[in-house]
Amino acid sequence: MPQISIVMSVYNGEKYLKQAVESILSQTFTDFEFIIIDDGSTDKSLEILKEFQQKDERIKLISRENKGLIYSLNEGVKMAQGEYIARLDADDVSDLNRLEKQLKYAKDNDLVVCGTWAECIDNLGNRVNDMDYPPSIDKIKTFTLLHNPFIHSSVMFRKDVFEKVGGYKPFFKHIEDYELWTRIVFKYKTGNIPEALLKYRLHEEQITNKNNFEMRVRGLLVRILALCRFIFRF
Q: Going by C-beta distance under 8 Å and a sequence separation of 6 or more, which residues neighbour residue 129?
């Protein structure tokens, strides 16, 4: 059984996919499985992934028709064998010691969810700015009332707790991670490593850029839920 299962969903991600996959396969921590779900890509994503799979047996590749990110992530976590689940999006890049540092930090601090800070890069890989999130649980709780407390592509979380709270919910499409954290941060210990262990790519094809209005509406609903969960602990 691997200690960590990395879960990645890919839909037409050929442009940045190689760099993302290589950043995991080159990690200093090696006891992991890499679950990649090709969610009905119509570009060369599947071809790229098959090439990687032939070279590294840690890759578990699933290819099927398009069912969306939420379905894919729940599917990936369900089949994962690791105690911890690490996320990575197909357009981001993990630092090569991310898994090693993150697992140690999560265990040393008894964290159920452990995120990291990130360096934002453009489509050419140039640094744009930094994303720094609150590291301590008390600050995370307060932050969650108004903002998503974790960078989704940076998180590592315990599979058993993810399953206990019910995983990602389809209704909260495009903001599924924020809603998930509101079910966790007020009941369990979470944290962010105050170090940029992820390169978070900014580009026009991002979901966050394509669905801005829809995300704002659902984001407002999640903030209301966060406040209710903070007060009533449900």
A: 120
The CATH number linked to 155 is 3.90.550.10
Whole-prediction pTM:
0.95
Number of domains the chain is built from: 1
63 is in which domain, residue-wise? 4-232
208 pLDDT higher than 70: no
- Asked if the model's pLDDT at residue 69 lies above 70, the reply is yes
Mean pLDDT across the stretch 61-67? Answer: 98
How far apart CA 38 and CA 63 sit, in angstroms, is 5
HEC per residue, the chain: CCCEEEEEEECCCHHHHHHHHHHHHCCCCCCEEEEEEEECCCCCHHHHHHHHHHHCCCEEEEEECCCCHHHHHHHHHHHCCCCEEEECCCCCEECCCHHHHHHHHHHHCCCCEEEEEEEEECCCCCEEEEECCCCCHHHHHHHHCCCCCCCHHHCEEEHHHHHHHCCCCHHHCCCHHHHHHHCCCCCCCEEEEEEEEEEEECCCCCHHHHCHHHHHHHHHHHHHHHHHHHHHCC
